[in-house]
Amino acid sequence: MEFSELIRTGQAQAELLRGPEMPPLRGTLCVTGHHLLLSPGPQATPDLWLLLLRSVDSIEKRVAGDAGTITLRCKDLRVLQLDIEGVEATLDIARSIEALSSLESVITSFPFFYRPKGLRLGEAWHFHPPERYYKRIARETRAWRLSEANEDFSLCPSYPRAVIVPRAVDDDALARSARFRQGGRFPVLSYYHAPRGTVLLRSSQPLTGRQKLRCAEDEELLRAVLAEARPGARGFIVDTRSAQAAKQARMTGGGTEAKAAYPGWKRLHRPLERGRPLQESFVRLMEACGDPEQSMDRWLSRLDGCRWLSHVKEALSTACLAAQGMEWEGACILVHGAEGTDSTLLVTSLAQLILDPLSRTMAGFQELIEREWIQAGHPFQLRCAHSAFSHTRPKHEAPIFLLFLDCVWQLGRQFPLSLEFGEGMLLALFDHSYASPFGTFLCNSEKERCLCEVRTRTHSLWSGLNQPKEQRKLRNPLYVPNPLAIWPSVEPQSLRLWQGLFLRWTHPPEPSEVAWEKVWQIATDQKTEGSQPTDSASEPQP
Amino acid sequence: MEHIRTTKVEQVKLLDRFSTSNKSLTGTLYLTATHLLFIDSHQKETWILHHHIALVEKLALTTSGCPLVIQCKNFRTVHFIVPRERDCHDIYNSLLQLSKQAKYEDLYAFSYNPKQNDSERLRGWQLVDLAEEYKRMGVPNSNWQLSDANRDYKICETYPRELYVPRIASKPIIVGSSKFRSKGRFPVLSYYHQNKEAAICRCSQPLSGFSARCLEDEHLLQAISKANPANRYMYVMDTRPRHRMQSWWATQKDIGRIILNAMANRAAGKGYENEDNYSNIRFQFVGIENIHVMRSSLQKLLEVNGTKGLSVSDFYSGLENAGWLRHIKAVMDAAIFLAKAIMVENASVLVHCSDGWDRTSQVCSLGSLLLDPYYRTIRGFMVLIEKDWISFGHKYSERCGHLDGDPKEVSPVFTQFLECVWHLTEQFPQAFEFNEAFLLQIHEHIHSCQFGNFIGNCQKEREELKLKEKTYSLWPFLLDDQEKYVNPLYSSTSQKPAVLEPNTVAFHFKFWRNMYHQFDRTLHPRQSVFNIIMNMNEQNKQLQKDVKDLES
């Protein structure tokens, strides 16, 4: 295998420091194609310490005398220090890690080699296809159909093979609409809000350009949406750019829907940060979180300066706006920014969590992520190539998915009983989206995943997470199904820094896991005893 | 009541403080002798105790009526719109009168009647017994004894009658030392650590000026250090910031150059211990700011978080400018220093600030709380407050502004203590028997004047007011409602490290929303973990009982 050329040295003696809470580990350090291994001496605990090289975000090396030190900053925000015997060995190991952690090829990545016990290949990949979601909608309404116009990804390379569109619009019209939208992302159904019979759609920007072009099929598509919903139904187009930015986009061929061309639709601008500014916000937040010596004033000013919580507030507010439009005004909502693969998905997925109780279950949340992020074409490989510590200039990196997870965490804090999954699930998703032995977050679109045969040659994260042994970590012991919409408060006093993620490796003295374990104990006591034949009315759900 | 002209106003609107759509409730406003009551159209009642009112404002007349804004000491802010200006004016004037009483006898506690007989009331007052508490700590013993020097409040009016001092400190030494200390507050025992045989002592600043000495005071400190067989060195902690003391020192020196030295000496009423004069002491400044800085810091904090439509950025820059969390961290750091001196170095510590009733109370009580798990129980916490705050003369009536007095004496010193404890409960979710609601309830009552505990400024004054005969103690009422205040995650057995070692890195300090926005319900989580865990616990217990009953 070609990895061997990149591995400069076999092994070296080293000591690993994993932060103040954990004891150091001594042993033999070894670099393999995908991992960094440390095997302790025979007398020590037999546990092998293993780090996926893909999860290394940045690496720093220092040598002094006849020893060296390597500092590894990982994509899950951990900082590790390796003290290595021998200068040559240090440099060789550092170079090997550098080369192997930045390999771009997908099909040589670890998920293609990972074969865990107890899981079968191909399992769980069939859990969440669009067809399944369509069946759910078809039970409620006949107004929508499943179109396979994108069967060969020719209409839109970043959409899945099948999408849900108004029944009244045929595949030819879809093809024309696709040509009128950036990247071919024509308006498709994201969520059907059954209680009010309204829908949430997403797309990319229309290519109106300087000449203010129009597209009859695109207009027809949106007209059909309103016509199917209800006579006289209204629609809102939530543009995630400022009015100014949307106007400017015309210069480069993009633009917005002209009011006259889309009767019944009203445009609202809610600018959300994306791309490089968002990545910089994340980087600056982590810089602030990495400095325990700073004064209170400095910390507060850096927390303010990095603007991360402002982004959380804006994302939640915009999602609330979309959800309110559907729930309170009975309106249809179309969300898009420019490409429709980032902040658009943030808004549509959060709006669903607010409105749809099913998406707050463990299975429903996995389905939501699969449908609204992975199959909807969020370019994970580009966005999550590096996390907050990389020294390389960010190209396409942006923590949009992390921002989504943070918003979900805020929802969970405000409605601690309404999400079936706990913080552990969100942390796991963050970790796996940046580096994972599973194939779920590989590639940028369904098309690429098909080319790489991800589904047949790697394991799905969902089958990994749904194993019984993982449940205690991932589930919320206090969950009680809540049929209502959950409206979060977005006042700054109600939002909090997600310490469990951003300060995960700088624990407070009594880790929250201990308290979490206690909550589990109380809740499971309750469940085992509650299942006895007593007539307790509020028996929680099994 | 002579102050009440209008007792009932209809069609009053209550505005939601944070709603951007100007939502409001319409209802009827009632004014009683003790409360302002608003009943909205859903029959929901909002009670506001007159004593809780910090500020009433009548704003300019609008088309919908006359706005009346009331800010309370428990951080409730209500915004009424009264249809007729005359009604508004009447209510405004009445509230101005009713919220500021001129004498103690007019406070609510003297009329509050929970329908208990005299013996029940007396038993309530006996619930916390400080002599018992000192016994629990292990004093008197061979090194420490009860002193009768202040039995008649002759030496220090603001101390309790019963004081514990080193056995070898004779009465003349105590008397001499008290003359050298501000307000006569000489060094006495606050907490005794039985295992380490080390003590936390407290006092006020020495009146040393530049160079004045007092041999008795030096002897008393020596006696304290000798009472600790494990470490002859003791710490003297001055809780004031060093820069303030040094700038004071500099101004004194300037004055000294102008006027006669001896005059300056006598004029000087401030100082700190000179390490050269005291053997075996290590002097340490820890920077907690004075009551005026704290008052204005809280004021700034409330201005920021009271803003409608606040942006995240304004919130955090406001939080930074207010400096509130910085002050909380300073108090916490001081308490940690104290606990470490005892645990790591086995050293006794003498704590003082200026008068020894504000910062000193904060540091001594918080330090004891870190050291001793007992103070983290519901009863223990009551004892701690009785000991380090009430008995040692924290001036509750002045600091909380119970009576119409000097606004410069008002300061949120005790609120800061409660906030520090809250931060500890956040860092150690299993270490405390009580929950946040308990802290909030205590805060409610330091201002409510419904119970006698916090009325007055020192024990002598409380005795003169005959509080134990005329009013009720808060503690038995809290114990009656105990289930509301229990932390379901508390585990007395898991207290492996009996001593708490909190982390005071800046990012562990958070804005205490449930205190400063207690009544702004839209800002809070919509579901309570606490309630559901309590219910589960309750049901578990019930089921276990059922199982037992069935088995027997």
Automatic annotation (TrEMBL), chain A:
GO terms for molecular function: protein phosphatase binding. GO terms for biological process: negative regulation of autophagy; phosphatidylinositol dephosphorylation. Residues 124-502 form the Myotubularin phosphatase domain. It comes from the Eukaryota. GO terms for cellular component: cytoplasm. Gene3D superfamilies: Pleckstrin-homology domain (PH domain)/Phosphotyrosine-binding domain (PTB) (2.30.29.30). Belongs to the protein-tyrosine phosphatase family. Non-receptor class myotubularin subfamily. This is Myotubularin-related protein 9-like isoform X1.
